[in-house]
């Protein structure tokens, strides 16, 4: 059964987790690397498990794995074999599942029990641009065809599904051709569901300039796409983007923006000013606009997820 549909049949909102990579940086890890958080998956997996647990403790109903920038090609460039790369990619799911199961065992015994769904583990599938590590996921200026994108995504998608993820999080997608490739590839894995979330440049358009509404309309016909939406985008664009997408799809809308700063892909640093109001207050506006899966992307922390939980448990 569609895991998102299953939860939303009983609960008004699925609270996603927040940033992984910038949390790892906050804990002292150096991610100025083309592998980004995938580097820590290789070197310090226990730190990733700790971040997952922090978000579950904060109230998240879904953990997104640390596989966003973990690709066979990227690991092979570092000297790993293809089998070693696939094993590392699959370990991202196992780490999140272990963190989830330990957390769930803790809160379903004794006084900690709460009215909330058992959290999902969503396996992150970042865009081709994340592998390039040059900011292409915010431009979408690929030269690859749909067929080439299918071939790029297939090994990782297969590995993550076989590792036991509840759902796939195909995220920060900058162009419709890549979303089409992912939707096409999903048909090779019957019974597997995914959400597809785009990066956006303004309140109406995804990163490469295509209409967010048209993207939602195209994906609406694909049953295995369980939700559509936006991530790693400036918060001020989110209300308009929700409205654009909801006008063209009945699927749940997923949003998890960053804190409003600009990313420099060369230095891999963030600059500018974060949103002035609390993340939780903004998230309530997104819920009222129609989003049904809400969390945070880069620079958000467990405290931001707590801000969503503070009002959403009574939504």
From TrEMBL:
Domain annotation Hcy-binding: ranges: 2-312
Co-factor binding details: Binds 1 zinc ion per subunit.
Binding positions for Zn(2+) per the UniProt entry: 232, 297-298
Stored Gene3D superfamilies: Homocysteine-binding-like domain
Keyword Repeat carried by entry: no
Cofactor dependency: Zn(2+)
Swiss-Prot/TrEMBL GO biological process terms: methionine biosynthetic process; methylation; S-methylmethionine cycle
UniProt GO molecular function: S-adenosylmethionine-homocysteine S-methyltransferase activity; zinc ion binding
Entry keyword Cytoplasm: no
Keywords: Metal-binding, Methyltransferase, Transferase, Zinc
Name of protein: S-methylmethionine:homocysteine methyltransferase
Originating organism: Paenibacillus terrae
